[in-house]
C-alpha cells in the first residue's frame, strides 16, 4: 500500500471530510531533464481544470474560486493555487513535488485520493478518527489499524476561529501506511512542525479579529452583554477556508511540501527494512547493521569520501611467490572523475606487485579508502580516524583500451597532476576498478551506518548532493 498523508476537517455543516491529501507515486518512465531542473520539495501545479473560471468571492483573502456545487464548501475543500493557462485562469487540480534523489518518485497532492480503494480507506479513517476515536480534550494522537490493511495515525487539533461555533474548528493530520513503528516515531514531527505551526498562525488571525471586534463594540458603544454568550456561528456567515483562517495564501503549497518531506523520509525508513532482509546470507548475518543512518546517506557519504581522498589501498591476492594466496595491500592512486558512477580509474605500472597479482586474478580485487578529513562531528571534543568513514570496495579490474588513454589521462590528472609525466613510461597503463559492492563503517555505531552497501545504491549516490540535515544523523 502506498503511504498517504491527509489533512482532515470536521466541518460544522458537512461533518468529517478530507480536505487535502498527498501520496507517493512511483513512475515507470524517467522524467525529462527539464523536469529534473525543478528544485526538490518545491510544489508546482501539475494539471489544471479546463472548466471556465468560477466566480470569485471578492472580499476573500484567498481570492480562490468558490464552487457553486452544494457539496463543496470553503471549509471542506482545499484552495489550490490559480494557474494561468494562457487563455483562462483556473484552479490547479493537483500539486506535485519531485524527489531530487529519485526521479521515479513523485508526491502528488489532491483534494481527495485518486484511487478508488484509497479513497474508501481514507474516507473511513477520516470518519473514524474525527468521530469514533476518543481523544481526551480532542487534541492529540490516535493510532488504529492492523498489519493487513495498514495503520492510521491521526493527530487531532483545534484551530481558533472567531466566527466558528465555540470559536474553534477541528482538524486532523492523518497518515496511512503499513509501517506502524514509523508512524509512531513521526508523530512528534507532525505535531511540532505542522499542527503547532498552523495553530500559531490561526491564533494571530484570531487575536487580530477579536481586537478588531472589541474596538468596534467600543466605538459603537454596544454593551458587552449583548454578545452571544455561546459563541454560535451566525447562520448567514459562510464557513471560512483554511487560507482565510490562517491568513496564508499559499498554505496548501506549504502543506504539500511538508507532506512530501514526511513521505520521503518514510520511504527511506522502509528501504532500510529491505536492507535488513539481506541477513538471509550468512555473510550479512554476521555483520551488524546500524539503522539510524540510512544506507542511502551512507552511500552518499562514501561517494564523497571517494571523491575527496584520491588514494587508498588496493587489495589483491599474492600470486607466484612463496606467499601465494596471502592478501596484499599497498597504497594506490585513483581518480573517480572519469565516470559518474563511483568506479575508480587506476594508473599502474606492470612492474608493481599489485598489478602482477591483479592480472592473475582480475575478478577479485578490493580497494580500501579512509576518510582523510572530518565528516562526522567530534566525539567528546576529540576527532579520531576511527570515528570517520572508511570502507572496502569489492570489484573487478578491466583494462582501459589504449585508444582511450589520452582521455583517461586528462581526467586522472585532475586528481593527480603529478602523474602526467608517467605516461612516457611504457610500463604504465590505465585500469578501471568496477565496484560490485562494499562494506562500510561510517564511524561509531549508534549514529553512523555500519554494514553492506549494495553496488546499485553506491553507483546511484551523488557525492555532492548529501542533504545538510542528514549530516547530523
Ligand atoms: Zn463543509
Key terms for this structure?
single chain; 473 residues; alpha+beta; Pnp Oxidase, Chain A; 2 domains; eight-stranded antiparallel sheet; seven-stranded antiparallel sheet; 29% helix; elongated; disordered C terminus; binds zinc ion; Folliculin/SMCR8_longin; Folliculin; UDENN FLCN/SMCR8-type domain-containing protein; Split_barrel_FMN-bd; signal
> Spatial order of the strands in the main sheet?
3-6-7-2-1-10-9-8
Shape: elongated
Cα-atom Rg, whole angstroms?
A: 30 Å
Which structural class is indicated by helix and strand composition? alpha+beta
User: In total, how many domains does the architecture comprise?
Assistant: 2
Mean pLDDT: 77
Give the uncertain stretches in residue-range form. Answer: 29-70, 224-231, 270-279, 286-290, 466-473
Helix content: 25-40%
SS summary, helix count: 10
The distinct ligands, each listed once, are: zinc ion
End-to-end separation = 28 Å
Largest sheet: 8 strands, antiparallel
Signal peptide: 1-15
Domain UDENN FLCN/SMCR8-type: 93-473
Protein name: UDENN FLCN/SMCR8-type domain-containing protein
Organism: Mucor flavus
Amino acid at each position: 500500500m502506498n503511504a498517504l498523508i491527509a489533512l482532515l476537517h470536521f466541518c460544522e455543516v458537512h461533518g468529517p471530510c478530507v480536505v487535502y491529501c498527498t501520496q507517493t507515486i512511483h513512475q515507470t518512465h524517467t522524467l525529462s531533464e527539464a523536469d529534473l531542473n525543478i528544485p526538490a520539495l518545491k510544489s508546482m501545479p501539475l494539471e489544471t481544470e479546463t472548466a471556465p473560471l468560477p466566480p470569485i468571492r471578492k472580499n476573500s483573502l484567498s481570492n480562490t474560486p468558490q464552487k457553486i456545487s452544494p457539496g463543496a464548501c470553503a471549509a471542506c475543500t482545499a484552495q489550490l493555487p490559480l494557474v494561468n493557462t494562457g487563455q483562462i485562469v483556473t484552479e490547479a487540480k493537483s500539486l506535485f513535488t519531485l524527489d531530487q534523489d529519485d526521479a521515479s518518485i513523485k508526491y502528488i497532492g489532491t483534494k481527495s485520493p485518486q484511487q478508488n480503494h484509497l479513497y474508501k480507506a481514507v474516507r473511513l479513517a477520516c470518519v473514524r478518527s474525527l468521530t469514533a476515536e476518543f481523544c481526551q480534550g480532542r487534541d492529540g494522537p490516535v493510532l488504529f489499524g492492523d498489519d493487513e490493511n495498514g495503520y492510521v495515525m491521526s493527530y487531532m487539533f483545534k484551530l481558533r476561529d472567531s466566527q466558528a461555533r465555540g470559536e474553534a474548528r477541528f482538524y486532523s493530520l492523518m497518515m496511512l501506511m503499513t509501517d506502524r513503528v514509523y508512524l509512531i516515531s513521526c508523530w512528534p514531527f507532525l505535531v511540532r512542525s505542522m499542527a503547532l505551526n498552523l495553530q500559531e498562525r490561526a491564533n494571530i488571525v484570531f487575536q487580530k479579529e477579536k481586537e478588531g471586534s472589541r474596538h468596534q463594540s467600543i466605538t459603537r458603544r454596544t454593551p458587552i452583554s449583548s454578545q452571544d454568550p455561546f459563541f454560535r456561528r451566525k447562520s448567514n456567515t459562510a464557513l471560512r477556508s483554511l487560507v482565510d483562517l490562517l491568513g496564508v495564501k499559499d498554505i496548501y503549497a506549504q502543506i504539500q511540501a511538508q507532506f512530501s518531506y514526511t513521505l520521503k523520509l518514510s520511504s527511506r525508513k522502509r528501504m532500510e527494512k529491505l536492507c535488513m532482509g539481506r541477513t538471509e546470507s550468512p555473510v550479512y548475518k554476521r555483520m551488524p547493521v546500524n539503522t539510524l543512518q540510512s544506507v542511502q546517506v551512507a552511500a552518499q557519504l562514501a561517494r564523497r569520501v571517494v571523491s575527496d581522498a584520491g588514494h587508498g589501498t588496493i587489495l589483491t591476492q599474492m600470486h607466484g611467490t612463496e606467499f601465494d594466496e596471502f592478501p596484499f595491500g599497498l597504497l594506490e592512486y585513483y581518480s573517480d572523475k572519469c565516470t559518474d558512477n563511483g568506479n575508480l580509474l587506476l594508473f599502474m605500472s606492470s612492474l608493481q606487485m599489485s598489478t602482477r597479482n591483479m592480472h592473475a586474478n582480475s575478478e577479485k580485487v578490493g580497494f580500501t579508502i579512509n576518510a582523510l578529513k572530518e565528516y562526522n562531528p567530534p566525539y567528546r571534543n576529540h576527532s579520531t580516524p576511527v570515528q570517520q568513514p572508511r570502507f572496502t570496495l569489492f570489484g573487478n579490474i578491466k583494462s582501459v583500451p589504449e585508444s582511450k588513454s589520452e582521455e583517461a589521462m586528462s581526467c586522472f590528472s585532475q586528481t593527480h597532476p603529478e602523474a602526467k609525466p608517467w605516461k612516457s613510461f611504457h610500463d604504465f597503463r590505465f585500469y578501471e576498478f568496477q565496484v560490485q559492492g562494499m562494506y562500510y563503517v561510517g564511524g561509531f555505531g549508534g549514529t553512523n551506518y555500519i554494514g553492506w552497501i549494495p553496488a546499485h545504491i553506491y553507483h546511484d549516490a551523488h557525492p555532492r548532493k548529501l542533504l545538510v540535515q542528514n549530516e547530523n544523523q
